[in-house]
Structures are given as C-alpha cells and as structure tokens.
Amino acid sequence: MSATRGALLLMSMLAAAPVHAQWLSRTVDGIMGTRIYVEIWAEDQVKGEAAIDAVMDEMRHIDDSMSTYKPTSEVSRVNALAARQPVPISAELFKLLGTALEYSRITEGAFDITYASVGYMYDFRAHKRPTESQIQAALPAVNYRHVLLDARKHAVRFSQPGVRIDLGGIAKGYSVDRGIEILQARGYTHALVNAGGDSRVIGDRFGRPWVVGIRHPDHPDQVITRIPLVDAAFSTSGDYERYFDEDGVRYHHIIDPHTGHSASKVRSATVIAPTATRTDGLSKTAFVLGPDEAMRIYNQLDDVDAVLVTPDGRILYSKGLQPGDGPSAAAAPADATPAAAAVQAPPAVH
Q1: What confidence tier does 139 reach under pLDDT thresholds 50, 70, 90?
Q2: Alpha-carbon Rg of the chain, whole angstroms?
Q3: Measured between alpha carbons, how far is 170 from 104 in angstroms, rounded to an integer?
Q4: What is the pLDDT of residue 321?
Q5: What is the pLDDT of residues 265-317, one digit of tens each?
Q6: pLDDT-based confidence at 206, cuts 50/70/90?
Q7: What is the pLDDT of residues 20-73, one digit of tens each?
Q8: Which of 318, 315, 297 is nearest to 306 (CA)?
Q9: What's the pLDDT at 197?
Q10: Which of 29, 52, 58, 229 has the most CB atoms in a 10 Å sphere around its CB?
Q11: Residue 14, domain member (yes or no)
C-alpha cells in the first residue's frame, strides 16, 4: 500500500469514527436581563453546539416578544392599547397569559401580572420608588381580573385604564421549558437549562442526580440546604435579587399586589415542580402570603414542593421534602453550588 493510499484510508477511518461524547455548556449574559446557562450531554459536538444555539435563539425570541423594556414587544403593545380596545395577540402569548391567570387563581391573587401597574414606578438600580400617594392612585389597576381574554379572537383587553402587565414573574420559567422542549425534540436526554433563578433538568448525570444548593439570603457563598433532582424544575426567588436599602427598609422587585409595596414575609422561596413555568409562577407566593399560608397552598398541589427561608432564619420544607422523608440536604453531595436566584448568579446545579 502506498503512503498516499494509507493516509487516505486513515483519514476515512477517522471521519467514520463516532465523535467522543461529552458535556457541552455555554453561558450568555443579557437575555431577558439575566444570565442564561445551558449544559447538555452530546455525542456530536457540532450538533450539540447547534442545539444550544437553538435554545439561545428561542430565549431571544421570548425576550423580544415579552419584555416590557422593549417598546416593540408584544407585551408593550398590549400595555399601550388594551385599556382602549381588544388587542389580537400571538397564540404563544395568549396561552401564557392564560397560565398566569391560572396561577393568580391558585395563589388567591398573590401572583398577579398586573402588579406592574404599580411596579413600573420602581427603579431598583436608580434607588427610585413611588410615593405612597402614587401607589394608592395606581393600586385600583392591580387586579388580575382586569385582564380579559377572548379565546375566539385570540385577543386581550383590560377592563379599566391604568392596567399594565409584566410577565417577569413567569416568562423566564416559560423560556426554560421551551429550551428543554427544543433539546428533547433533538434527542437530548441529559441536560440543564437555567435562566437566572429558574432552572430545569432532564435525566441525571449518569448515576448521580443534579444537585441544587439553596443559597443563604445574606451570604451568597453559603448553602443552607441541598436537594438532589432528576427530571424536575426549580425556581428560587429572593429579596436579594434586585433591591436597594433605604432607612433600614429593603425595597425589592417582588411586589405585593395588594399593597404595592415590596413583599417581605419570607427572605427566599424555592419551588420544585415538573416545569419551570410552574415553579416560576409559584415561587413569589410566599413573599405575599407568608410561609404558613404559602405552605398550605404548596402542600395542596401534588406536583409541587418548596423550601422557604423566613425573616428570622428558619428553614421550612413542604411535606414532600421533610428531612428524613424524601430528598433533603442529607441526601445530596456536598459540592452543590448556590441556586441561581440572583440576576447574575452562576449555574445552579452540579
């Protein structure tokens, strides 16, 4: 055999050989105002990178459609017009609005996308908050019942002036679920998609569960408990994400729809459920209702568990996570990292 033929044969053999399977990951900042992290087990690096590209593209699409910071978004158009006339909207937005209203009913109004009728007046970066008179003037517009959906026309309208909606409390979870759906459609069975405090995992890490570590509200590098997960989603909300302190009071982005003020009945809430849309939509409830009432709701939902940190430092578990009765800190490896509750937090699990 000539040297040339031997070289060609070797190249052919290499080209036909299966690509080495590996974990691929990527972090992108600035989509939906947060950090997006994707990790997958891929047998082909090129196809794996293309799958991650597709997830990031979907995240950008959702941001373009649902951000209230973008005047051209669908949600911005709804806020501009829906108090005066029905506004036709995409099937995607119509369905998510319906889901948001469902969570408002489940949480007895604690989750309410019309909080934005007051919430838009807060600017946490600029340490700006509305006056009490401004809050009281805007508060009548805060009620999820003001959002009226017309299934026949696929349209939305508001029942009174002054109503604004903001999907920041559910859209990131929805985007995580869409990312997982894209990966599953391409055949991936071991993956993590994370958007800020919202994450979902499929499969395990080949014999080991993914592990979420819930961070201490006051100490970002400390983990207060660890939970092993397989095929599950989780969201952590905290009063340390977007906030400023003034005269001993913490003003943060989770607004109580009943008062227009920051809700402070817990310090952090982690919710675990099958989808990130569900965990995102339910994780703010405890801040408004308080730990006891929120746990009552969580314990009524068969597919939901939760871990709450109270203002006095207590750690409360829902019935499915009681230490000794199910997945708990004792069951998890010691190397978990804090949950990605902060806007610029690192990936939430190992």
Answers
A1: very high
A2: 22
A3: 11
A4: 84
A5: 999 999 999 999 999 999 989 999 999 999 999 999 999 999 999 999 999 99
A6: confident
A7: 899 999 999 999 999 999 999 999 999 999 999 999 999 999 999 999 999 999
A8: 318
A9: 86
A10: 52
A11: no
DSSP per-residue string spanning 78-146: HHHHTTTS-EE--HHHHHHHHHHHHHHHHTTTSS-GGGHHHHTT-BTTTTB---HHHHHHHGGG--GGG
Q: Are residues 148 and 282 in the same domain?
A: no
Q: Are residues 264 and 247 in the same domain?
A: yes
Q: How far is CA 218 from CA 63, 148, 224, 251, 342, in A?
A: 30, 40, 11, 15, 12
Do 195 and 117 share a domain, yes or no? no
Range of the domain at 182: 22-65+173-331
Per the CB < 8 A criterion, the answer to whether 175 and 58 are in contact is yes
Contact between 133 and 125 under an 8 Å Cβ cutoff? The reply is: no
Query: What CA–CA distances, in Å, run from 207 to 36, 228, 229, 230?
Result: 26, 12, 12, 10
Amino acid at 213: G
Q: Which one has a higher pLDDT value, 175 or 245?
A: 175
Q: Do strands 147-150 and 155-158 pair parallel, antiparallel, or not at all (unpaired)?
A: antiparallel
Output the pLDDT for position 19.
Answer: 55
Mean pLDDT score, 138-160 = 97
Q: For residues 254 and 264, give the distance between their C-alpha atoms in angstroms, rounded to a whole number.
A: 8
Please report the sign of the dihedral spanned by the C-alpha atoms of residue 245, residue 241, residue 270, residue 277: positive
Residues near 12 by beta carbon (within 8 Å), at least 6 away in sequence: none
**Helix 45-66 with 91-106: angle, nearest 10 deg:** 70
Q: What is the CATH number of the domain that holds 139?
A: 1.10.3980.10
Q: Is the residue at 85 inside a domain?
A: yes
Q: Which two tokens stand for residue 247?
A: 């005269």
Residue carrying structure tokens 């859209």 = 171
Nearest to 159 by CA among 101, 230, 233: 101
